[in-house]
Structures are given as C-alpha cells and as structure tokens.
Amino acid sequence: MAQPLKKKEVKQKPTLASFKEKMGLTSMKASSADKELEWLLMPQAFKDVLKLPGIPQGYITTIMGHQGTGKSTLINHAIVAAQKQGLIPVIYDTENNFDFTYARSMGMEAEPIYGDIVDEETGEVRQGIVEYEGNFIYFNNKRLAERYGIHDHLKGVDLAKPRKDAVLEDIAYSIRELLEAQDNGDICAGFLFIWDSVGSIISQKSLNSKVGNHMFDAASISEAFTDLLNNKIPSSRKASEPYTNTMIVVNKVWMDSMTNPVGPPSIKQKGGNTFGYAQRLCILMGGQLGPSVKILTAVSKGLTYQYATQTKIRVLKNQLPAPFTLSYSGEIVATPTGFISADKDTLDQYRKEHANEFLKKLNEIAESSEAVLNTDDITFSEEEQL
C-alpha cells in the first residue's frame, strides 16, 4: 500500500519586525519622532519680513552682524518670549554689555534689587541697583570665573588656586551642568541658552599660554561644544524628551578678503566653523561689508535724539523643516521697546505716539543750553551709515 506523501514544512522567512523585537528595538525609550515644531514667538514686524513665526525651539540659531545693527533687540525679544512661554533664559554675556534696562523696557521680567554702592575712589556710599532677580540665569565673565574658575578644562583637574579669568570652556561646562540638573529633575523647564558673543572670550589653552591664539580658540570651541550642538540640544526635540532646549548665539564677524581676492570681502564668523556647521537658522542683521543702517533721529533747535535704528534683516542659512525652508529679507526698525515695521505709516504712528517722550529726551539734552522746546519744534531725519 502506497504511503501518503508528507507535506514539506515551509519555514517562514524572518521579518524585519521580528528582528527588531528580538533585538529589543521596539521597546526602546528614546523616540525617533520629533515633537511638533515650536517657536519663540517674535513680534509681528519680524514675522512680516522673514515669514517665520519666530526663533525655532530645539535648534541652534546664530545671529550675525556688525555693531549697532539690532542684534541686542533680537536677543531681548527671544528672552521675553522664553519667559512668557515657560522657558528659562540662560544668558552668557561674555561681552559684558547686556543692558537690563533695555531688556526690561522690552518686557523682560527682571526685578532690580537695591543696596549700597561704594565709590572705590572717594569711599562715598549711595543706594543703587546691585542685582537683578527673576526667571533667568545670568553669567558675565566675572561670574563664570567665580563659578567655574576652579576647573582646568585641559587637564580635567581642579586647580589649587582658582583662575580669575573666564574661558569659553566654562560656558560649555555650565550648559552641561544645567542639562544634568534638568535630567535629574532639579529643574523642570526647558532652557534657552544665549551666548553673546562667540569670539569675545579666549580658551583655556590661550589663557595658559598667555598669548591669545585664534586657532587655539577655534579648536577649543569644536572640542567643547560639538556634542552639545549636535547631540545634547537637538536631541531634546524628540517626542520622548520632556523639555525642549534651544540655543541662540551672537557670532562676532570678520571680513575675509582672501577667499575672493578680485571681489569684495565676505563676512565670516569668528571662532571657526563649529557653530556654522551646527546652525539650522542664521540671521544677518545689517549689511555684509558694514552696518548699512539708518539712524532715525528727532531734531529740535540744533539738538538731536536718536530714537530708533532702521536695519536690514535676512536669513543667510535656513535648514528648517518644510514649510519654513524659504528665506526672505527686508528691513526692520529697532526701537527702545523692540522691533516695529519699517513702512512709513508705522513709523509715522510711532513718532506720533512717542512725541512727548522725544520731547523729554530733547529737553534733557537741552538742560545746559536752557532751550525751551515743544513738540511743534521737532522734525525727523535719518542718517545712513554704511
């Protein structure tokens, strides 16, 4: 009697899904998906010119420009937006030029603390603002050295005698310290890290050598910040991360006349290319060869008060997700209370609303000349600075 044929068992081929499950790749806590893109919301004038809602959160944004082109105004808007949106601004002011009065006039929450101020020459004691407190963290060079001057970042050891000078590695060390506090649950909010500015502080190696060296500093920036810029900060965009962290840097600039010897020099970022490679958005304030701004003034009886600066603004680099990938440019006006549009109607309205303020400033200037002014005496002019 013939035996029935047995059916050959067909072994199923392994699938990618089964392999992922076997390797534990389907149960990983770190997400591959980004959160929905959020913004540090900027004023309407910024939105109208650049067609962006503001500064993207979770990315590295750089601001470039010559002196007096509105960079501080943009930084202050970002700080105010961060505070309103529940983030903690961390300000690294290595130019030692942060103006709390200006920032507060734009809406920054910073409470002045009064105390005794001693004149070092005369010994006279007077009452004045000795500190600002609020939802922010502030470092200048002296504070960085006071907090982190015990560290020798090159040797990875603590110094027996703390250094008195801050170095750029202190900033990276500080950011890591704050991110660790966030991971440990000691801080329950996202950060906005602001550095003003790259190129204004030397490295540990330059300090140790007692001779400033731009190559030392550029290499030190790369070593100290690469992981922060390409990993720590951008990874906070992932859906599995509870807080989103953002970094904005003002980059000092220099003019490169060698790349194109027969043409005009091009604008370059100081401190090497580390931030240039990491930036997803780069905003240029003013022109490339110079400030290229208009100084707007109120004039009366030979007295002049500068009330605003009209400046160019444009995106030099944009690698944001669609549909925000287009780059635009235009002009914007930086006033003591922030950006406004550069169109004639907006400027006329601003002048009308602030006429009494202009009059007060002009009268303060006129104290020595004993001139008597009123709003009818005021005319408006502009001076172009190339």
Would you write up a description of this structure?
The chain is of the alpha/beta class and 386 residues long. It has a domain at 36-287 and 312-328: Rossmann fold, CATH 3.40.50.300. The chain has helices at 16-23, 44-50, 71-84, 100-105, 141-148, 168-183, 204-209, 214-232, 274-278, 344-353, 355-365; strands at 39-41, 54-56, 60-65, 88-93, 111-118, 125-133, 137-140, 151-152, 157-158, 191-198, 246-251, 253-256, 266-269, 281-285, 293-300, 303-318, 329-335, 338-341, 379-385. A hairpin with a 4-residue loop joins β8 (151-152) and β9 (157-158). The longest helix is centred in the middle third of the chain and has 19 residues, at 214-232.
